[in-house]
Design a protein that fits this description.
Blueprint (H helix, E strand, L loop, with lengths): L9 H7 L2 H4 L2 H7 L6 E5 L5 H8 L3 E6 L2 H10 L4 E4 L11 E7 L8 H11 E12 L5 H13 L5 H4 L7 H11 L2 E9 L2 E3 L4 H9 L9 H19 E2 L2 E4 L2 E8 L4
Parallel strand pairs: 1-2, 1-4, 2-3, 4-5
Antiparallel strand pairs: 5-10, 6-10, 7-9, 8-9
Bound molecules: benzoic acid (BEZ).
The site of benzoic acid has 8 residues, from loops.
């Protein structure tokens, strides 16, 4: 069933944005799953990394807030358990050896609530391993979008930004507040190719749909082409767009008592 509130088009996501899972290899290595471990994949999308963890011998539960994504994940990987869940209201208690999350936590604007749920979901001694957008992530894109809002007389541009991009100081402090011992934290640049001459437009349409809520198609088209024009010189190289991604990677341990 397709939910009308669901902003995610799972087929388009798999066709044009499979790079999200491909670029998740580093965080899978940091997770270093062991055979038999129970792992919660928080924000599993269409299930590609959950499937990879399963192939490595883990018992995976994949969760995502999008019904469209979970339906697609179930169709692609019927042997894996997937559920629609809200990361800020998880039902799990002391169940998982690890909670893993790739490219999801920047969508959650109540980070402490999500971290509390993650902590509670882990067994004593369990680990939380995550990668997501950090401070100043895609700032060229955001600034260009905000400029275009102003040019079009749209006053509430700031409020339309749907992402949370914390510094590692801020995020690891929240982790400590909920009880984690932080054993690893990194904030690094990862310029990310957006395929094809329409790569930036496709990215904005896939990930930024809430930016355009309530705008007419012509306002939206004008906004996107304005953003492309203002960023072409710095972000379009050798026939492709290169987005200014800045990632955070963290590992936190839940105490064993
Ligand atoms: C990211 O993975 O950093 C990201 C993806 C979509 C929108 C914003 C950030």
């Amino acid at each position: 069933m397709k939910s009308s509130n669901d902003q995610w088009n799972s087929k388009l996501y798999d066709q044009s944005h499979a790079f999200v899972s491909k670029l998740g290899q580093g965080i899978v290595e940091l997770l270093a799953p062991k055979a038999g471990e129970r792992i919660l994949d928080l924000g599993c999308g269409t299930g590609d990394l959950a499937n990879q963890l399963t192939d490595l011998g883990a018992q995976v539960v994949g969760i995502d807030q999008s019904e469209n994504m979970i339906q697609e994940a179930k169709e692609k990987y019927p042997h894996i358990t997937f559920h629609v869940e809200d990361a800020t209201a998880l039902p799990y208690r002391n169940e998982f050896d690890a909670v893993f999350s790739n490219a999801t936590l920047h969508w959650i604007k109540s980070p402490k609530q999500a971290l509390t749920c993650i902590y509670d979901a882990l067994k004593p001694g369990g680990r939380f391993v995550a990668e997501f957008g950090g401070e100043n992530n895609v700032e060229w894109i955001i600034n260009a979008v905000l400029d275009q809002f102003k040019k079009q007389g749209i006053e509430d541009g700031d409020k339309r930004i749907p992402w949370y991009f914390p510094s590692i100081g801020e995020y690891t402090s929240l982790m400590e507040e909920v009880g984690f011992r932080v054993t690893f934290a990194q904030h690094f640049d990862r310029p990310t190719p957006l395929e094809g001459s329409h790569g930036l437009k496709n990215w904005l349409e896939m990930f930024g749909s809430s930016l355009f809520k309530g705008l007419t198609e012509s306002q939206k088209a004008q906004l996107i082409s304005g953003v492309e024009d203002s960023l072409r010189e710095v972000m379009f190289r050798n026939g492709q767009w290169l987005a200014d991604y800045k990632r955070i990677r963290v590992v936190g341990m839940k105490g064993s008592k």
